[in-house]
Amino acid sequence: MADKFEIRICGFGGQGVILAGFILGQAAAIFKGQDAVFIQDYGPEARGGACRADVVISDQRVLYPYITNPSLLIVMSQVAYDKFSSQSDNDTLLIVDEDLVEVGAARWKRVLSIPATRMAEELGRVAVANIVMLGFVTAVTRVVSVEEMKQSVQASVPKGTEELNMRAFESGYAYGLEKLQFRPEQE
Amino acid sequence: MTEDGCLVGEFFFSGNEACTEGAISAGCRFFGGYPITPSTEIAERMSERLPEVGGAFIQMEDEIASMAAILGASWGGVKAMTATSGPGFSLMMENIGLGLMTETPCVVVNMQRAGPSTGLPTLTGQGDMMQARWGSHGCYGIIALSPDSPQELFDLTVKAFNLSETYRLPVLVMSEAAVGHMYEKVVIPPPGEIEVVHRRKPTVPPEKYLPFKPDADLVPPMANAGEGYHFHVTGLTHDERGYPASSVEVQDKLVRRLVDKVYKNADKIIEVEEDRVDDAEVVVCAYGISARVSRIAIEHARDMGIRAGLLRLITVWPFPEARVRDIARQVKAFIVPEINYGQIALEVERCAGGAARTILVPHMGGGVHNPETILDVIRQAVR
């Protein structure tokens, strides 16, 4: 079968992880022109508890829209980490909000972290933590291009907040580029 | 967006959003509904979109009233729709029957979830397929469509409206949570490129109009209330004037026509998709999300040298009897994965008539088949 790139974004309800998943899927499907499916965890537990957004991207039609083992796991809360980290194997690239997630035993070969929520607070609005995270993810994974992701962010955030969201994106993106420079080994 | 409020372009839509836009593009201007997971986003988006295009949205007190409301809207001349899920679909059954008896064009979307009863409200199922066929009392023909993607939810919602206007009956879009809540690219063509069927109006003057006198295709032209034509509808057995007539003869003529207008036009109504059926020794017959994941199993089977094919039911009702009968003569087995304990598999088995085996791959709901499970059954079937 075609190469699939499976991404899971998880956190607690209200952090914007669902919107982040939508923006990522839209960037791939509409602005990059790949095949992409986005599915949100949908249930009573999504309110306040751990919630997740799953995106599957492929060059061919995504026939099975569910994630079996994410290539990329983005975690923005401890509860979500505890709930979803066991479903990933050692090859998964783990990205966490470093202030909110304590990564347990060193089973992960590839972990990157960013204080996305703290950076969003410094920008004046904690609500843009998800967009900071997307900027970071774009820098360190190139799953879609910067332009594709920016277009998708612009098309999805509430009117009047575009400028703030762009600043959030840029700060996460810059942080990601910086991280990459200081990484001992490139992927 | 066009001048009349229809969207055009590429969108990253959920199936529910695509369904709503399909309805708008098909000319739907009335929605009466009662929100229920996993169909709620249809009602939600309709409540925003219909006022923008000069239509009306009413949140009714329940699903019984919702179904009644769209019948009334249709009699008034407006294309009308409702959307629901299992528990609401059960409540709609009586008035779906009224719509069938009064030959009222409308569209009912059922975003299936796992039942029975309230079951798994947020999780997928395909357990209402036989209810779609037989759920309302009495004899009738019905049309039901099953989309496998958000794009197809757009396309088939348009088609459902066209079929409902062509054959004067409620048409069912039998989708499911897995497709309604899935986001994917949806392409909406310009209005001129979307086929939209309008109601067939009477060609005779008002004094000569008989509202239930069929044309050659067994479908009567339909005047809308308020257009100067005599208009009377009843759930009672009625003559061509629309008046109650309690006789065996009238019943015979009417009910035969209600069934035959679907069966005798089945060739025009039925749409299936076939993938590598021609040389197949085993054919997976599936619909909706189950057909989608079956493709993976078929691909793997082909890689192993097994000649597997797919018969995807886009139209589930009327059932493509003739095609299944033909394929049965050439294959060892049909494999029917569905998210229930065997519904459409019974139809496949009936039409195969012993010429080929029918193997059900059931899933009780709450998720979709693992393609490996389907592959295992394919391998066993050719052994």
Q: What descriptors fit this protein?
A:
heterodimer; A: 187 residues; alpha/beta; Pyruvate-ferredoxin Oxidoreductase, domain 3; 6-stranded mixed beta sheet; 6 strands; 40% helix; 20% strand; globular; B: 383 residues; Rossmann fold; 2 domains; 8-stranded mixed beta sheet; 5-stranded mixed beta sheet; 13 helices; 15 strands; 22% strand
Written account of the structure:
The complex is a heterodimer of chains A (187) and B (383). Helices cover 40% and strands 20% of the residues of chain A. Chain A is of the alpha/beta class. Chain A has one domain: Pyruvate-ferredoxin Oxidoreductase, domain 3 (3-Layer(aba) Sandwich), CATH 3.40.920.10. Chain A has a six-stranded mixed beta sheet. In chain A, helix 3 (116-122) crosses helix 4 (129-141) and helix 4 (129-141) packs across helix 6 (162-181). The longest helix of chain A has 20 residues, at 162-181. The model of chain A has no long low-confidence stretch (mean pLDDT 91). In chain B, the strands form three sheets. In chain B, strands 2, 3, 4, 5, 6, 7, 8 and 13 form an eight-stranded mixed beta sheet that branches. In chain B, helix 1 (15-26) runs parallel beside helix 2, helix 1 packs parallel to helix 6 and helix 3 packs parallel to helix 4 (86-101). Chain B folds into two domains: 9-193, Rossmann fold, CATH 3.40.50.970; 271-382, Rossmann fold. Chain B has 383 residues and is an alpha/beta fold. Chain B has helices at residues 15-26, 40-52, 63-75, 86-101, 129-134, 150-167, 177-180, 248-263, 266-269, 288-303, 321-328, 344-352, 371-382, and strands spanning 9-14, 28-33, 56-59, 79-84, 106-114, 120-124, 143-145, 170-176, 182-188, 272-275, 282-286, 308-313, 315-317, 333-338, 357-362. Chain B is globular, with a radius of gyration of 21 Å. In chain B, 38% of the residues lie in helices and 22% in strands. In chain B, helix 2 (40-52) links the parallel strand 2 (28-33) and strand 3. The chains are: A alpha/beta (187), B alpha/beta (383). At the A-B interface, helix 1 and strand 2 of A face strand 1, strand 9 and helix 10 of B. Strand 2 (35-40) of chain A pairs antiparallel with strand 9 (182-188) of chain B.
